[in-house]
Amino acid sequence: MAVEHVLEVRDFGTLAAVPGSTPAMLGVCNLRGQILPVVDLALLLGISRTAPPGRLLVAGTGGLKAGFAIDEVSMVGELADPAEEAESDLLVGAMLVGGELVGVIDVPQVFASLEAG
Question: What is the pLDDT of residues 52-73, one digit of tens each?
């Protein structure tokens, strides 16, 4: 995910359920008086989760803001443009960082897919 889309990383906290929402929509939370939808990023990417999410990454683009349920954050910083193509439409691409393959989230595309619902 491009760092300019990351607004904050915080503890997961408590969510309120949203009846009739998609499986990826985990619920909503109160973020300093603002209602924030919380989405399971692993489910959107087709990744199986082995434990409940521990962190909430708040991201925004084009006036939209949402929380993404994630396992952890190892670092936040600028990345070079991805050198490898990715199989998911929700990824800009992939790259090796410290010997690990890292997928770079396409935040505008994630929001577009959520709106298409």
Answer: 888 999 999 888 899 999 888 7
Coil/strand/helix, residue 68: strand
With beta carbons less than 8 A apart as the criterion, state whether 23 and 15 touch: no
Q: CATH classification of 3-116, choosing from 2.40.50.180, 2.60.120.10, 3.40.190.170, 1.10.10.10?
A: 2.40.50.180
What is the sign of the dihedral through the CA atoms of 43, 48, 53 and 59?
negative
Contact status, residue 62 vs residue 110, Cβ threshold 8 Å:
no
Give the list of residues 6+ apart from residue 75 with CB closer than 8 angstroms, or none.
none
Which residues of the chain form beta strands (DSSP E)? 6-11, 25-31, 34-40, 55-61, 64-70, 91-97, 100-105
Q: What's the pTM value of the predicted model, to 2 decimals?
A: 0.82
